C-alpha cells in the first residue's frame, strides 16, 4: 500500500531491468526505427532501458498495476499477479476478464520467492507498491536474479530524501501506458486508451461550473494521524480535474501523513474516503463524523463525505472514471 512511507535512495535508478526479459540499461541512444519493432528503448523513472523482445512472464503487484496490463490486453504476457482482494466495481470494468485469464499468485506481500516460482522475466511494481528497501525486494535485487523490473511511474523517486513524484498523476498513467505499448508492441492499443482517457477527463472537466471550487481532503486511513494524498498522488489530479481543490495539494509528495490540526485549519468542504483494507469505508466515515476535533469542519458539519475505491485512487486505468464520478458529486456539493 502506498501509505507505507519507507523512504529510499535514488540508487535504484541504475538497475531497472536486465537480460531476463531481453532488456538492458542503455545510454541516450535513439530508439530503433528498423523493421521488426525491436529493439525499443523507453525511459522509466529516469533510466533508459532497451528491450530486445517483449517480456513473456510478467508478474505484477497490486490491483491497479495488474489492470494497466489488462487494459492493454497483455494477459498472455503475464505469469500472474499479486494483489489484495479489492473487488469493488470490478464487474463494471471493460477489462475485468483479465482476472479470469491470469493466475492470482498471492494476496500477500510480493517477494522474491513468488516471482522465482512463477519463472518471471519482468516484475511490474512500484516503490511502496511492492518494491521496498526494507523488505529487500528491489529492482537491484531482482537484477541479481536475472529478472527485469518496470517501476510504476507514480512511485518514481526524485529530489532530496527520495521523495516520490516526478510528474502529474494522470500523466504518469499515460506515460506507463505509452511505454508498455512500446515494450509489448501494442502501441496502437496504448494510443487509443490514452486518447479515450484524455477525452473522458476532458468531458468531466467541461461539466465543472465556474466559480469557487470545493476544498477537498482525501482520507486514506489513520486515527492518530491521517494518511492523505499530496501533489504527486493520484487523488491530486482526480480532485482537481473533477472541479475541487486538494487541500493538501501543496505537499511535494505522493502518499503522506499530516496532523489533524492541519486538516482543521484548512477547512475541507468535502472529504473523499479511500475504500480499502480491514477498516471499511463505513467505519472510516463513522470515525470522521464522530471525531470531536473535526466537529466544526464544513465537510463534517454538512456530512459531505464521498467514497472512492482504492483502485480508483492509485495509478490505474480506473482514474479517469473516478474523475467523472467525483465531478458529479462535487457539482452538488459546491459552496454557495
Automatic annotation (TrEMBL):
Secretion signal span: 1-19
Pfam families noted in UniProt: Peripla_BP_2
Keyword line: Signal
Domain of life: Bacteria
Residue ranges occupied by any Fe/B12 periplasmic-binding domain in the UniProt entry: 57-336
Cited CDD domains: TroA_a
Keyword Signal: yes
PROSITE patterns tied to this protein: FE_B12_PBP (PS50983), PROKAR_LIPOPROTEIN (PS51257)
Keyword Nucleotide-binding included in the entry's annotation: no
The family this protein is said to belong to: Belongs to the bacterial solute-binding protein 8 family.
PANTHER family: IRON(III) DICITRATE-BINDING PROTEIN, VITAMIN B12-BINDING PROTEIN
Name listed for the protein in its UniProt record: ABC transporter substrate-binding protein
Amino acid at each position: 500500500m502506498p501509505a507505507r512511507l519507507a523512504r529510499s535512495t535514488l540508487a535504484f535508478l541504475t538497475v531497472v531491468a536486465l537480460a531476463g526479459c531481453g532488456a538492458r540499461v542503455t545510454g541516450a541512444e535513439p530508439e530503433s526505427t528498423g523493421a521488426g519493432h525491436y529493439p525499443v528503448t523507453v525511459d522509466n523513472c529516469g533510466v533508459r532501458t532497451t528491450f530486445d523482445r517483449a517480456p513473456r512472464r510478467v508478474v505484477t503487484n497490486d490491483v491497479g498495476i495488474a489492470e494497466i496490463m489488462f487494459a492493454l490486453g497483455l494477459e498472455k504476457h503475464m505469469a500472474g499477479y499479486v494483489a489484495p482482494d479489492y473487488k469493488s466495481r470490478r464487474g463494471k470494468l471493460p477489462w475485468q476478464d483479465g482476472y479470469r485469464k491470469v493466475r492470482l499468485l498471492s494476496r500477500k506481500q510480493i517477494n522474491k520467492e513468488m516471482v522465482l516460482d512463477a519463472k518471471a522475466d519482468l516484475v511490474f511494481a512500484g516503490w511502496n507498491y511492492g518494491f521496498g528497501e526494507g523488505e529487500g525486494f528491489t529492482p537491484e535485487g531482482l537484477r541479481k536474479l536475472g529478472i527485469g523490473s518496470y517501476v510504476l511511474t507514480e512511485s518514481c523517486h526524485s529530489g532530496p530524501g527520495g521523495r516520490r513524484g516526478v510528474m502529474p498523476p494522470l500523466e504518469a498513467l499515460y506515460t506507463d501506458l505509452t511505454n508498455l505499448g512500446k515494450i509489448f508492441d501494442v502501441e496502437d492499443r496504448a494510443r487509443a486508451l490514452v486518447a479515450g482517457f484524455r477525452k473522458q477527463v476532458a468531458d468531466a472537466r467541461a461539466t465543472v461550473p465556474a466559480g469557487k471550487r470545493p476544498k477537498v481532503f482525501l482520507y486514506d486511513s489513520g486515527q492518530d494521524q491521517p494518511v492523505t494524498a499530496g501533489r504527486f498522488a493520484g487523488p491530486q489530479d482526480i480532485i482537481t480535474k473533477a472541479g475541487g481543490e486538494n487541500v493538501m495539494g501543496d505537499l511535494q509528495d505522493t502518499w503522506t501523513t499530516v496532523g489533524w490540526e492541519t486538516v482543521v485549519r484548512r477547512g475541507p468542504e468535502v472529504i473523499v474516503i479511500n475504500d480499502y483494507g480491514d477498516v471499511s469505508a463505513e467505519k472510516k466515515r463513522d470515525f470522521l463524523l464522530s471525531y470531536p476535533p473535526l466537529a466544526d469542519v464544513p465537510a463534517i458539519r454538512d456530512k459531505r463525505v464521498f467514497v472512492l475505491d482504492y483502485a480508483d485512487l492509485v495509478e490505474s486505468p480506473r482514474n479517469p472514471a473516478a474523475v467523472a464520478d467525483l465531478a458529479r458529486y462535487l457539482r452538488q456539493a459546491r459552496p454557495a
